[in-house]
Amino acid sequence: MENTIQAKNQLVPPYPSLSWHWDIKSNQFTYDQALFEELLRPNKPIETANDILQFFTPDQANEFKQAVVRARRTGNRQYLSCSLLPNDHVMVFGEFYIEEIEDDVLSGHFQPLVIIPSRQEMANLFHAVSKPPPRHSDHR
């Protein structure tokens, strides 16, 4: 993991995957807390699987719940692309992988793909993608 840290202590891609395990009956949710906090800098702790939902938009929280239901009902692995908002500044786009590994036990990982560490960086990104392309003069 040391190779993911730049000199300014900024995380750079590729980001490590965050594995998790959820025993639904006991509601025991386990994950690498230190890695989660380093990557996402959450403003609230994760103690249960439902606590993850606080980092989704309402629509994406519903999509996550539906993916969990599908994984349990079908036994098929589920993938969900989403944005997490772990605090007032950071936005993380990534993919959740979810599967039921035994009755009432889910496991998977979250793979961050893009981490935008501040509102300033988000503004810079939107500015860059919304700028009109440079005009080329037509000199003959």
Q: Can you give me a brief rundown of this structure?
A:
By secondary structure, the protein is an alpha+beta fold. It contains four helices and five strands. Helix content is 29%, strand content 29%.
SSE topology sketch:
Blueprint: E1 18-23, E2 28-31, H1 33-40, H2 49-52, H3 58-74, E3 78-84, E4 91-102, E5 105-116, H4 119-130
Antiparallel strand pairs: 1-2, 1-5, 3-4, 4-5
What tags apply to this protein structure?
five-stranded antiparallel beta sheet, 5 strands, disordered N terminus, elongated, alpha+beta, 140 residues
Detailed description of the structure:
A five-stranded antiparallel beta sheet has the order 2-1-5-4-3. A hairpin with a 6-residue loop joins strand 3 and strand 4. The chain has 140 residues and is an alpha+beta fold. The chain is built from four helices and five strands, in the order E-E-H-H-H-E-E-E-H. Helix content is 29%, strand content 29%. The longest helix has 17 residues.
Which residue ranges are poorly predicted, with pLDDT under 50 across at least 5 consecutive positions? 1-9
Strand content: 25-35%
Give, in order, the helices and strands. EEHHHEEEH
Adjacency order of strands in the biggest sheet: 2-1-5-4-3
Kindly state the percentage of residues in helix: 25-40%
Q: By helix and strand content, what is the structural category? A: alpha+beta
The residue-averaged pLDDT reads 87
Principal-axis shape equals elongated
